[in-house]
Amino acid sequence: MPVQRRFSALSLLFMAIGGMVGSGWLFGPLYAAQFAGPSAFIAWVVGGVLMMIIALTFSELAAMLPFSGAMARFVQFSHGSFSSFTLTWVAWLAAVVVAPIETMAMLQYASTYIPWLMQADPSGVGHTLTAQGGVVAAIVMLIMCYVNTLGAKVFSKTNNTVIIWKLAIPVITIIVLLTARFHPQNFVSHGFFAGGIKGLLHALPEAGVIFSFIGYSPAIQLAGEAKNPQRAIPWSVLGAIFFCIVMFVLLQIAFVAAIPGSSIANGWHALSFSDDAGPVAGLLTMLGFLGFVKLLYIDAVISPLGTGFIYTASTARLNYAMSQNGYMPKFLQALNKQHMPHKAIWLNFAVGMVFFAPFPGWQKMVSFLVSCFVLSYAIGPIALVTLRTKLPNQHRPFRLPCAALLSFLAFYICNLIVYWTGWPVISKMLLVIGIGYVVLLVSNRGVLKGFDFRHGVWLLFYLAGLGLISYFGAFSGRNVLTFGWDFLVIALFSLAIFIWAYASRSGPIDPAELAVLED
Questions:
Q1: Rg (Cα) of the chain, in Å, rounded?
Q2: Whether the predicted pLDDT of 33 surpasses 90
Q3: Fold assignment, 9-518
Q4: Which of 72, 131, 333, 422 makes a 20 to 30 Å CA pair with 255?
């Protein structure tokens, strides 16, 4: 039973915006200010522009090949099964954690009024769920999954309704902060670049900046269910990122300007609020906006919940595509009467629940997600130039100009962002990839016979190279490769891998695999 095309361009736009306006805006302004000081708003501009360059490559690919779970199919077409499994495994594992982390963010804010949901972590860093909180988290996850099994139409209407609220509250917050308190001296306190350029770059993966902009990916995963995907996908993805750049920048400026001078007396790195309700709510409470704070707490439930809804839907499509490629069991292709991959949805629920084990905090978990997501995005630029060669006559409604140059730039950007997450995060990511190979070997040895290993050798050297550069690098590594020189080394490394990957492309694509696009 094929999936149906039910999502309009407006629905995809709302999904992309909704995916970006989740818990990131509730925590990001504080963490970005701690890393970068007054220049934190520049991190949102840089992060948005970098992600837009990456998104340009996926806009061409998704408009040309609008499959459900599209990201899993691009690399399958360009480099075969081994590369496809590796990168889609990382993408799936990262995506399946989004709903749990948004649920945890929601419950952390809610714990201000319902304290038995969370408890202080024994390490003294962050919060973890109590036993009762774990039960509530499971119920929230069940609701997300159940709504998604009701069909694309119900999901789309639910998301379109939630997104109006999700956008209204941040906009009102910006207006309240800008009009209530504006201390221009804050922008020179302790220096405009209080954390230096390195601090600004740290803010991209570790403060939730890149995490927020990553949210456009559901529009790519749902490409196969879009009406007129050729126009809807580029319009929704690029439009959503541009909109969110403007909103996040204004929010960061308003946040920095509203902070009382006493809160930054010891430097921006020491910025914090005694109220553990959350940074944005904490600042508004400090300024005396108690009535609006209550509204913000409601939004702290709705915004993460809305993002969780979106990722629950799109991640199931990734399972669907991985199953079609032979990387997951065939039963995950099953669709219910509403044409939804319901078994994949419930599998992701089970896997997602595992990630409610105590974490050091939202911030550290975000860094891990960013490294996994962005690594999986790195295939987009490579797939674009590869498929320009392999599918030269395929209709491209959106054609990226200067494709080779922009694709290499996007690939370089992906590698920089992964590198900026730091060696402790990258080492865990490489471990997760290794676990994926073990799972595949144990669960489906038969698929290994058809693996195109010779088209994926470059990928093993790519992963090993990223690990070595990170280990010796300046971002939580040994600092043998000092700041500044690491940019040059990554550029040369990226160029070598980019050329090698293009030369390692797989053979001709079976026309039958593309025939479904004509349905």
A1: 22
A2: yes
A3: Amino acid/polyamine transporter I (1.20.1740)
A4: 422
